[in-house]
């Protein structure tokens, strides 16, 4: 059987918990690791400026609970995009990237998931495309110096919504430190994508995989990319997981949920674990032991 690690996104867990309690909860719920969030909120962006003491304390808690973080999810670039028309925003985006790389090194995180948006709150233009590629090259150069992987996520946005598009970006920026992070929900939601074909043709560029349910984009529906309960959306998880098993994908999976403010987030995360336990068993994927 194929063996893979299964992690849980930080935003799935209750907000008001200590790091020690969060790490223990991750194991108690049956997950192998936590995915760390640096989103566009001031609170999470401030983590980039943690002091040496704060970083050391975090590491100590992580080690004491026999925990690890496989990926830092860097969605803060939605607010400060690499492709912004504003040069001050672009400078800020590069500053965020350098700080994220340094934080990853200090916390022992080897992979930074990069949101595949040229811009998010601004109009998309050929110039935003060019600014994105220009600054992505700078980001990859920064990461390579510290041996940190940057993995572009397939998005809820047409700009980079498939592994095929990420593979094309890799023809423009040639580096082993730039890879893809397919979100099975996002790929499945776009009608132009053949999910199996996309995974088959680009398996060598996949560093990690997000597990998220979505509802498809149609001519009359813009799709639903967040907060779709597992099994209620359109993602053929069994088919996707069978494909990845056949391709001998040995990287990690992360369950992506936003239940930290739910009435009972622990129950919701437990339900998600049971959902994927059943699917893993059905397709022959063995989860790494806790």
UniProtKB/TrEMBL annotation:
One of its GO terms (molecular function) is intramolecular oxidoreductase activity, interconverting aldoses and ketoses. GO terms for biological process: L-ascorbic acid metabolic process. Gene3D superfamilies: Divalent-metal-dependent TIM barrel enzymes. Residues 23-276 form the Xylose isomerase-like TIM barrel domain. InterPro entries: L-Ru-5P_3-Epase, Sugar_Epim/Isomerase, Xyl_isomerase-like_sf, Xyl_isomerase-like_TIM-brl. The keyword Isomerase applies. Keywords: Isomerase. Pfam families: AP_endonuc_2. SUPFAM superfamilies: Xylose isomerase-like (SSF51658). Transmembrane segments: none annotated. Signal peptide: none annotated. NCBIfam families: hxl6Piso_put (TIGR00542), PRK13209.1 (NF009688), PRK13210.1 (NF009689). This is L-ribulose-5-phosphate 3-epimerase.
């Amino acid at each position: 059987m194929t063996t893979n690690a299964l992690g849980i996104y930080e935003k799935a867990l209750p907000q008001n918990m200590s790091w020690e309690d969060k790490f223990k909860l991750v194991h108690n719920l049956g997950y192998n690791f936590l995915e760390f969030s640096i989103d566009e909120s001031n609170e999470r962006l401030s983590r980039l400026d943690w002091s040496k003491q704060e970083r050391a304390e975090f590491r100590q808690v992580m080690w004491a609970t026999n925990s690890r973080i496989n990926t830092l999810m860097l969605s803060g670039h939605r607010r400060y995009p690499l492709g912004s028309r504003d040069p001050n925003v672009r400078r800020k985006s590069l500053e965020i990237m350098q700080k994220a790389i340094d934080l990853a090194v200090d916390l022992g995180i080897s992979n930074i998931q990069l949101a595949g948006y040229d811009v998010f709150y601004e109009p998309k233009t050929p110039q935003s495309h060019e600014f994105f590629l220009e600054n992505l090259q700078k980001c990859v150069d920064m990461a390579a110096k510290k041996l940190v992987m940057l993995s572009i996520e397939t998005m809820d946005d047409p700009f980079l919504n498939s592994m095929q598009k990420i593979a094309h970006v890799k023809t423009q920026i040639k580096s082993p430190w730039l890879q893809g992070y397919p979100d099975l929900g996002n790929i499945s939601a776009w009608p132009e994508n053949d999910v199996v074909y996309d995974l088959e043709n680009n398996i060598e560029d996949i560093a990690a995989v997000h597990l998220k349910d979505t509802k498809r984009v149609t001519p009359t529906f813009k799709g639903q990319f967040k907060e779709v309960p597992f099994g209620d959306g359109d993602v053929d998880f069994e088919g996707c997981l069978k494909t990845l098993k056949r391709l001998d994908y040995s990287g990690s999976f992360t369950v992506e949920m936003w239940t930290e403010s739910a009435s009972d987030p622990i129950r919701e995360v437990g339900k998600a674990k049971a959902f994927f336990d059943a699917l893993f068993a059905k397709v022959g994927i063995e989860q790494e032991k806790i």
